[in-house]
Design goal:
two-stranded antiparallel ribbon; alpha/beta; eight-stranded parallel sheet; 2 domains; TIM Barrel; 372 residues
Length: 372
């Protein structure tokens, strides 16, 4: 064989070896490949959502009936609603509730629904026929034994999870004399709320501290009308905010929500209820206290806000203030208005899509972490 032929043959062999090597991924290459993080998954899901889908994640509604029906199915699909809250009108039996939660979840498209309930204990308890109501917070606080708060939270959380309910709007972190409150001492309330938080985390159920920044000093029921808390910021910090600060400092923000109240705190913002106040939600809760989890409003149907504003605007104001989820519990027309108001504001750029994305990423991350 001539020199040129031998050179050609050698070149051909080397080329074939190189091509064969390109077709294989070495074990080292496999090891170097970065696994997809939770944040990567969240970002990918949110990037795949339309603006109407994103806004739907930021609205939680009440539905009617003990089974899924045309109205509830329409709300979930037409408006891409991201969460549902149950009341006794939805709860007939354990079997019926499990079917209802499953049927509602079947309507969810890209991420599961939040399905929530107010199972505080005492007089605020749902489904008493098949969910054992915990004792009131006050009665637990009077025992001085915070392990009871933990065991009841774990027991309640486990029961809710079994029924398909993944969010409890409890424990109450307010400081005061109401039976819903553990104590008039913020340090004692913090101790019991921390124990309850541990119980819910053991049950893998999302819990909710309410009602930020504390309604224990309130004299008017915010279901009926608005009122003011005439405390200085220092007084709030020394008492009312102690339970919230305790959980924020020592627990993962993916495990709990914070519900903001409809009271006015003139020392923080003399013009707006906490639920509509950037001073309370963004400046105090986010920036000063460092909470980076999900903020949910108390129901926007309550008199303290609904008497003084249109539903089309209330959800917008709540989001502008810093809320991630606007809660509307009772009227489909009001729920629709809140959703459409936020969507219109986002479409017009009154609320930036970047701001919408911040909330939706928090919501989606929490849902993925607590996916059954």
């Amino acid at each position: 064989m001539g020199i040129s032929k031998r050179f050609f043959a050698l070149t051909l062999v080397m080329l074939l070896v190189l091509l064969a090597g390109c077709g294989k991924v070495s074990e080292a290459d496999k090891t170097d490949a970065k696994p997809q993080t939770l944040d990567d998954k969240v970002n990918a899901i949110v990037a795949d959502m339309t603006l109407p889908e994103k806004v739907g994640q930021m609205v939680m509604i009440g539905v009617y009936g003990t089974e899924i029906n045309d109205d509830s199915r329409y709300m979930l699909n037409q408006y891409h609603i991201g969460g549902v809250i149950f009341f006794d009108r939805n709860l007939q039996s354990a079997e019926q509730t499990k079917k209802l939660t499953a049927d509602l979840q079947a309507q969810a498209a890209k991420v599961p629904l939040f399905i929530a309930i107010d199972e505080e204990g005492g007089t605020v308890a749902r489904g008493k026929g098949f969910i054992e109501p915990p004792p009131s917070a006050q009665s637990l606080g009077q025992t001085g034994d915070n392990t009871q708060a933990e065991s009841w939270a774990q027991k309640t959380g486990t029961r809710l999870k079994d029924l398909g309910i993944n969010v409890n709007f409890a424990p109450v972190a307010d400081v005061g004399t109401n039976p819903r409150e553990f104590s008039t001492d913020g340090r004692i309330v913090a101790k019991f709320v921390a124990a309850a938080a541990q119980g819910y985390e053991s049950a893998h159920v999302i819990y909710t501290l309410k009602h930020f920044p504390g309604i224990g000093r309130g004299q008017v029921d915010s279901h009926i009308d608005k009122s003011e808390i005439p405390a200085t910021k220092d007084e709030l910090m020394a008492q009312d905010l102690v339970p919230f600060k305790e959980i924020i400092a020592n627990h993962s923000p993916e495990n709990f929500m914070i519900m903001v109240s409809h009271l006015i705190y003139p020392a923080l913002d003399k013009d707006h209820t906490a639920s509509l106040s950037a001073e309370v939600q963004t400046k105090l809760l986010r920036q000063e206290l460092g909470f980076n989890g999900v903020i949910v409003t108390d129901s926007l149907g309550m008199g303290a806000v609904s008497k003084y504003g249109e539903f089309r605007n209330l959800g917008v104001q709540a989001v502008q203030a810093g809320a991630d989820i606007a809660l509307v519990c009772h009227e489909y027309a009001h729920e629709t208005d809140v959703y459409l108001g936020i969507l219109e504001a986002a479409e017009k750029g009154i609320i930036s899509e970047e701001r919408i994305n911040e909330s939706v990423k928090r919501i989606v991350k929490m849902k993925l972490l607590h996916k059954s």
